Amino acid sequence: MGATGPDAMPCRCGCTAADAAAHAVANALAVDDLDHALDIGLLELRPCPACTPGCRQSILEAAAARRFALAARERYRAREARLVQRAAERAARRRPPAPTALPPAAAAALARAKARAAKP
Questions:
Q1: Under a CB-based contact definition with an 8 Å cutoff, are residues 37 and 28 in contact?
Q2: Which pLDDT tens digits describe the chain residue by residue (120 residues)?
Q3: Domain limits of the chain?
Q4: How is 49-75 classified by DSSP, letter by letter?
Q5: What DSSP assignment string belongs to the chain?
Q6: For residue 82, how far is the Cα from the chain centroid?
Q7: What's the whole-model pTM score?
């Protein structure tokens, strides 16, 4: 398929070009080890140009699907944060206002009632 190099790693498609990173990602994807593929650079690398079109396409599709999933997760987290913020604002609006001092007439009536209650 391609020229062999000193750091050549055979790909699942049979390519032996010297693109070890792309081949490692392709091999990880072949065994459904997405975590390992991500760890070794699935999102950052370009597929090996010497690999078969199907092999290159599978790497590109896996990277695109993962980017889409990461973007969806970020949108979900942002939505959850907005919902929590809205709930907090709604709860703050529903709280009764803080107690204030009694109007002077009510304070005087309360004082008189307390005075009567305190007499034996």
A1: yes
A2: 444 444 557 888 888 888 888 899 999 999 999 999 999 999 998 898 888 999 999 999 999 999 999 999 999 999 999 999 999 999 988 887 777 788 889 889 999 999 999 887
A3: 20-118
A4: TTS-HHHHHHHHHHHHHHHHHHHHHHH
A5: -----TT----TTS--SS-HHHHHHHHHHHTT-HHHHHHTTTTTPPPPTTS-HHHHHHHHHHHHHHHHHHHHHHHHHHHHHHHHHHHHHHHHHHSPPPP-PPPHHHHHHHHHHHHHHH--
A6: 14
A7: 0.64
